[in-house]
Amino acid sequence: MAVVSFKRALVLVMNDKATVIERMEGNPVWGTRDVYDRPAVILLSRYVRIPGSRRVPVTRRGVLRRDGHRCAYCGSGATTIDHVQPRSRGGADSWENLVACCLRCNNVKGDRTPQEMSWSLRIMPQPPRGAHWTVRGTERTDPVWEPYLALAA
């Protein structure tokens, strides 16, 4: 499942590779051979296997987004990420070991663990879940998509 542009959806429908499930309100699209409804949700005519798993790759932007751009230690605005267990001590680049962090806390913490600093985490780092993470392009959703996105989550 993915969110595609209106133009891409229309091309898939015009080439009989997809059918329109939900339509947008408004005027139809006039083609050279036919008139087409404006697609809001389409269904592909055949299954297209998406390579890879549904696992969300770990990125700096993803960690900041998951944590709401808030520091996991003090709660202020975060601009960097921090390894809870430092990399020099075997800490991995994983969703469970990375948190959003403000520059001040990141510099003070340095190469130590939160326990050594007597700090506690405001959030427990874990992989992100939900349709907004597993389906590309769902940051800005259309209310018509909600029943279909719920099935993907």
CATH architecture term of the largest domain: Orthogonal Bundle
Percentage of helical residues? 10-25%
CATH topology of the largest domain: DNA Binding (I), subunit A
Helical stretch tally: 6
The value of Rg in angstroms is 22 Å
Low-confidence stretches: none
Q: What is the string of helix and strand elements? A: HEEEEHEEHHHH
Strand content: 15-25%
CATH class of the largest domain: Mainly Alpha
| DSSP, total strands | 6
Widest sheet, order of strands: 1-4
Query: Helix- and strand-based class?
Result: alpha+beta
Whole-number total of structural domains: 2
- Main sheet summary: 2 strands, antiparallel
Q: What is the residue-averaged pLDDT?
A: 84
Beginning-to-end CA distance, first to last residue: 10 Å
What's the shape?
Answer: elongated
Organism: Microbacterium invictum
Keywords: Endonuclease, Hydrolase, Nuclease
GO molecular function, one term: endonuclease activity
Domain HNH nuclease: 58-107
Structural account:
InterPro entries: HNH, HNH_nuc, NA-targeting_endonuclease. Residues 58-107 form the HNH nuclease domain. The chain has 2 domains: 1-50, no CATH class; 60-117, DNA Binding (I), subunit A (Orthogonal Bundle), CATH 1.10.30.50. Helices cover 25% and strands 16% of the residues. It contains 6 helices and 6 strands, in the order H-E-E-E-E-H-E-E-H-H-H-H. The chain is of the alpha+beta class and 153 residues long. The protein has helices at 6-14, 60-66, 103-109, 114-117, 131-134, 146-152; strands spanning 18-23, 29-30, 35-36, 39-44, 80-83, 98-101.
